[in-house]
Amino acid sequence: MSRVTSFLRQPIVVALALIVLLLYLGALLSPGFASGAQILRLLIVASLLGIVAAGQNVVILGGREGIDLSVGGVVSLSAIIAGNVMNGADIGILPAIAACLVAGAFFGLLNGLGITLLRIPPLVMTLGMLGVLQGLLVVIRMGIPSGQAAPALSRFVTQPLFLSVPGIIWLWVAIGILMAFMLNRTVFGHRIYAIGSNEHAAYMAGVPVRLMRIALFMISGMFAAVAGLCLLGYSGSSFANVGEQYTLTSIIAVVFGGTSLAGGKGGYTGTMAGAFLLVILQGILTTVNIDESGRQMVFGATLLLLMMFYGRGRAMRA
Amino acid sequence: MSKLKLSGVSKAYGATLALRRGDLEVMAGEVHVLMGSNGSGKSTLCKIIAGSVRPDDGRILIDDTPVTITGPRSARAQGIGIFYQELSLAAHRTVEENVCLAALPAKARLFVDRATLKERAARYITLFEGVSGEGFSADALVGNLRPDQRQLVEIMKALASEAPLIIFDEPTSALDRAQVERFFEILRDLKRRGRGIIFISHRMDEIKAIGDRVTIIRDGETITTLNLNETDAGTVIRLMVGGAGDMPASQSSAPAAVDAKDGAALTVRNLSGSGFRSVSFEVARGEILGFGGLHGQGQSALLRAIFGAGSIGSGEILIGSDRFDAASPRDAIRRGCAYVSGDRGRDGVISGRPIIENVTPIHYLRDRLMIARPSKLRDKVAPALESMHTKFASLFHPINSLSGGNQQKVIIARWLIDRPDVLLLDDPTKGIDLSAKADLFALIRQLAADGLGIVLYSSEDAELLGNANRILVFNGGSVSRELTGPERTRYNLYQAAYEAA
Predict the structure, then answer these.
(1) Are B272 and B189 within one domain?
(2) Which of B241, B256, B274 represents a domain boundary (last residue)?
(3) Which helix (H) or strand (E) holds A131?
(4) Which one, of B463, B482, B460, B456, lies nearest residue B471 by Cα?
(5) How far is B441 from chain A (nearest CA, A)?
(6) Of B226, B241, B256, which residue constitutes the final position of a domain?
(7) Domain that holds residue B365
(8) Could you tell me the pTM of the whole model?
């Protein structure tokens, strides 16, 4: 009996149940919401979010109030860089990927250095970095939309690639498998959990805590950059602050998936479910004609609600 | 006239009796010294008087009237002031504000009356005029002061309570001679005014200088109260040690003699750093070297510094015949040095993670592993845990599911997969049960027999006497005495810890 209830209490089970429930609710509100084609479309959007959330996930797992608020800015910047590098030509895709990854890693490195060497709290450091990135975007584009997605990139994101499923969803699945492997089966993954659970003990056991933390922020920047690149493929051209919404939603997806904001506890599979859940919620809100500002409010409230829900366990432990 | 009287006071934490029976009488106008070794129950006794711990049983009388102390506020209302050993100052406030912190003078019940505050604080600050050192003034920020100056502020704060009975728990540990002299003059003045003072110190010379009577606590029981001018240090120490103190450590448990021809595993020459100074010693392969002395005399600081987790000012460390100065624990581990802390919650346990992940970190590092394959790791982890009879249901259960003793075994097991050359044990049995202790020492002796050089710091004398070939007694950050062979007795250990400096 207790085994059943503890199974039902697992965040990932809760998230999956909510996914089914919301899909059903969506179908009631608008027939066809839960059709195969529509679910695929939702999954494409979910993969964009899920890729950003992968980086957010490792940063949060690493503990010490780890959080990356700059992901939204990196997504936007990456979309613009990619758009300008490839400029509508397939030949430019590889250079664009390289440029985006370098940019993402660079801003992640800056975050990591600020947090470890200057001891700036992650919240403040990455919030400041978000501000810098937003300013940088204005300077680069000077308000004019620029850059086009290469046709192959757009096809990869929006058209079926294999088994009538688009490439980006396969990419997301691959990232999911990779993350699960990294977190459970590699020394690096075990060290992420170690520094997230007890940083000092990890240090005394020879874990290079600072290097680890810098690496985590670089990973986060690179995942955000990949998402920005794919986002360009999804929308065709880069426009104002495309990535803005990802800061908040990536955090919600991670928390939804059962990763503790205190670090050291959770995983990526739950985060994937959390990302899908959020996207369905977003779809339903759109269906019932709630605009962007309304959706943001719902998301904000969702995060606070989740914190009340999951926060209880921690308060009891303390 | 009796200021405070405790009779038959006891306190248990779960199954452990921290205080079995506490009897104490403090007279008006006396300095009453409390003496006892680490964990004898004297701080529990003080906490009961100060109201931060409620006794399970017993009676407390103040001025011959029975009272119940319900908490620190109630203790203060009953006229009890306390000097805290762990500094309780507000670092970002000034000296005068800290001195008056317990009872800030108020205007209109709302605003702090600065003029009165200044005047009141000045009374206590001038008491230490001339000895308080450079940079000490009423409006200096406490955070900018030296440790001895902060301790003076703490004393002033206790004095400012103007309580009829004040407890001073090791008030002189950071003070220099002139400051101690001045402090004792102030205490003598308080005595003349009929105050009662409870004084805890580990320096025999200070106790002789200021104390009137001494109450000795051993194993949670107040043994006796003596007049200090009718007794000598030897008697006091003998009482603290108990009956068998003069006997050498029993031969059955003493370790085998070390064959020194194998050479030194660890050599430390003239090492100084924060918390310890000019320490030199050598540990042979196969030797267990004991560190003794009172708590916080530099033993832990030294061990952590060797392991790369503390700061070293000067001196040199050799492992084998190679120069060893680890920049970090990571570096130390790679070069064959191991460290087990008694504070496993802070330094050891990776909480919430599976047992197996708590054993493997050292193996990952020393074997430069990238991939963690559970099946392969299990073959290495299981024997390491079994060698200490660790009880666990599954390697994949969280470490928190184990008892304290078993958690500590897991932490030690992480050093057994790839054997180090030197093992540093920093009070490793703190808070673990007797059978776990026995398993642990059996293993430590086995490791020594296998040729490791082992340094054991323990706050329990029996552990040192039963396992160490030689014992270095620490006092004030340096080694005050070395005990070998038949010199290794509880009496000598205490004497070296208390008498020197």
Answers:
(1) no
(2) B241
(3) helix A122-141
(4) B482
(5) 22
(6) B241
(7) 264-498
(8) 0.79
| Total number of domains constituting chain B | 2
Same domain, B38 and B148: yes
> Is there a single domain that holds both residue B311 and residue B396?
yes
Instruction: For residue B449, give every residue at least 6 positions away whose Cβ sits within 8 Å of its Cβ, in sequence order, or none.
Output: B256, B286
Residues from chain B contacting residue A201 (CB–CB below 8 Å): 346-350
Which of B429, B436, B426 lies closest to B457, judged by CA?
Answer: B426
**Same-domain pairing of B204 and B273:** no
Read off the pLDDT of residues B9-28 as tens digits, 9 standing for 90 and up: 988 877 677 888 889 999 98
Could you read off the pLDDT of B128-169 as tens digits, one per residue? 888 888 888 888 888 888 878 888 888 998 888 888 999 998
**Rounded CA gap, A184 and A308, in Å?**
28
Asked whether residue B437 is assigned to any structural domain, the reply reads yes
Are B327 and B191 part of one and the same domain?
Answer: no
Interchain proximity A187–B370, CB inside 8 Å: yes
> Which amino acid type is present at position B182?
R
Report pLDDT digits (tens) over A44-73. Answer: 999 999 999 999 999 999 988 899 999 999
Chain position carrying tokens 């503990």 = A63
In a domain, B250, yes or no: no
Instruction: Specify whether B184 is located in the same domain as B311.
Output: no
Task: Convert the pLDDT of each residue in B155-164 to its tens digit.
Answer: 998 888 888 9
Q: Quick check: B429 and B437 in contact, CB under 8 A?
A: yes
Question: What is the value of ipTM here, to two decimals?
Answer: 0.82
A196 touches chain B (CB under 8 A): no
- B257: which DSSP letter? P
Residue B255 inside a domain? The answer is no
**B411 and B452 in one domain?**
yes
CA distances from B97 to B112, B134, B142, B183, B466 (A): 10, 19, 10, 21, 50
Tell me how close the Cα of A225 comes to any Cα of chain B, in angstroms.
26
Q: Which chain A residues are within 8 Å of B418, Cβ to Cβ? A: none
Number of Cβ atoms within 10 Å of the Cβ of A119: 8
Where residue B105 sits, what CATH number does that domain have?
3.40.50.300
Please report the pLDDT score of residue A258 as a whole number.
Answer: 84
Judge whether residue B259 has pLDDT over 70.
Answer: no
Dihedral sign from CA coordinates of B293, B294, B298, B299: positive
**How many CA atoms within 13 Å lie on the side-chain side of B311?**
4
* Residue B318 maps to a domain: yes
Verify that B343 and B447 share a domain, yes or no: yes
